[in-house]
Amino acid sequence: MSENKPENAGTTRSPQPASPAPSGAPAEPAASLPRSHEDAAQSVSKDTSPAAEQAKVRSSTDDPISASALTPEDPRTARLRDAAEARSAAAESTARQEAAVHEREARRGGTRSVGATTVKPDPVAKPPAAAGEPHAGDVSAADIATDDEIATEEAAAPTKHAPGSPPPGFGAAPDFSATNPPPPNALPPSPPRYLKQSDSAWSVFGRIIAARARQLFDRAGQRITQRTLRIGVSARIFHPEPGAKGLRGKTLQYLEESIAHWVMSRDVLVFMIPTVGHQGMLHPSNIRLRDYAKHLDGLLLQGGADVSPQTYAEAANSHEWPGDRVRDMYELELLHEFVESGKPVLGVCRGCQLINVAFGGTLYQDIATEVPTANAHVNENYDQHRHGVHFPDGSTLVNMFPGRRDAIVNSIHHQAVKTLGRDLNIEAVSASDGIIEAVRYRRAPFVMGVQWHPEFHRAGGPELLDCTPLLDTFLRVARETRF
């Protein structure tokens, strides 16, 4: 009598006589595999007969005879053969799997349903155990598992199938009528967070429009803040000389190169602002100075000719100092347009004097004759002439130049502030004689005038005051007020 071993599970087994049943229990017939399982197992067995070996040799592609006799195969026959081989492989895998289950159930002593057949342990008699060894049938109570425990373990264990075999239910037809309801613990659908209980279609639409408008405004503001600054510089005017020919017989408007380069050193655009008007113009236009104040970000009043005494309601003390009344009217209008637009204004030398006159102040027409105790503020050395200045208490220049209350600047002027205009503060005075050297209009973001020429300081030597902080403050306010 053969033993019921796993390696014999795939071969056909002849029916074995039933071993005697224990006393008091009816004898049961030996369990046998279904007919389909026996056929699958027989298909797995290998044919080792001589005829089969010869057929393999003849069908080998290494045999020249068989290679020469090879004929093309019908595609349909090849597909049928492939399908048959696939079914055979699937049957072989299924047979091996079921045989393994059968052997495991036989060792456990329980029963398992395989397909429609109930497999029970094979009551084949076991050989007697050797002396001193436990009998194969003698198992302890702890090793015996009930059918319920085995079923629980198999239900908890994941389904396994042999490698290469199709998963369970692979060939089943899809059920399109089946539904996939949400799990019972799923939360009910809730409205989006951006919706409120009191929202309506119109309120949501209004929020969308407001968000789009904010986006457009942000983009426009970004373009404005990132745009390069545009600084306007007032023009110097060369009036035609009587009887002169060529350019000397024409009105010229120009700016001094150093003042333009000083402003451009901070990577901003500089525009010279010409005079406007209808009188004497060959080509009249509707452009006004307020248009420059609207489209430019700041104004710089450069130096040049004296301010005419008529501008501050005085008569000229000497015919040598008539000033430039035409330029006074042009720059005063320009200054007031920028101040009303909230744009910053920086005056240099003559520009400082013009700011004082614009707010009702007066000037010394000539320092040497009107203030005999004052030091010389101009000589033939022009931009090489210098003197000391002091920043009094309350001056904003103390904040621009931390730790500095005194500095050295150049001096190229024979006129100076006499009577201070309304709402103006004194920002600097001459250290030796007290002549006002800088003023600031306190009712505007930035309207300041300095009597010296900061554009010449770098060429004058390192001992002169570096006025870069003054320029940076002017440009910073221009950025803040341009929109």
From TrEMBL:
<feature type="region of interest" description="Disordered">
    <location>
        <begin position="1"/>
        <end position="138"/>
    </location>
</feature>
<feature type="compositionally biased region" description="Pro residues">
    <location>
        <begin position="180"/>
        <end position="192"/>
    </location>
</feature>
<feature type="compositionally biased region" description="Low complexity">
    <location>
        <begin position="119"/>
        <end position="131"/>
    </location>
</feature>
<feature type="region of interest" description="Disordered">
    <location>
        <begin position="154"/>
        <end position="194"/>
    </location>
</feature>
<feature type="compositionally biased region" description="Basic and acidic residues">
    <location>
        <begin position="99"/>
        <end position="108"/>
    </location>
</feature>
<protein>
    <submittedName>
        <fullName>Peptidase C26</fullName>
    </submittedName>
</protein>
<dbReference type="InterPro" id="IPR011697">
    <property type="entry name" value="Peptidase_C26"/>
</dbReference>
<dbReference type="InterPro" id="IPR029062">
    <property type="entry name" value="Class_I_gatase-like"/>
</dbReference>
<feature type="compositionally biased region" description="Low complexity">
    <location>
        <begin position="21"/>
        <end position="32"/>
    </location>
</feature>
<feature type="compositionally biased region" description="Low complexity">
    <location>
        <begin position="86"/>
        <end position="98"/>
    </location>
</feature>
<dbReference type="Pfam" id="PF07722">
    <property type="entry name" value="Peptidase_C26"/>
</dbReference>
<feature type="compositionally biased region" description="Basic and acidic residues">
    <location>
        <begin position="73"/>
        <end position="85"/>
    </location>
</feature>
<dbReference type="InterPro" id="IPR044668">
    <property type="entry name" value="PuuD-like"/>
</dbReference>
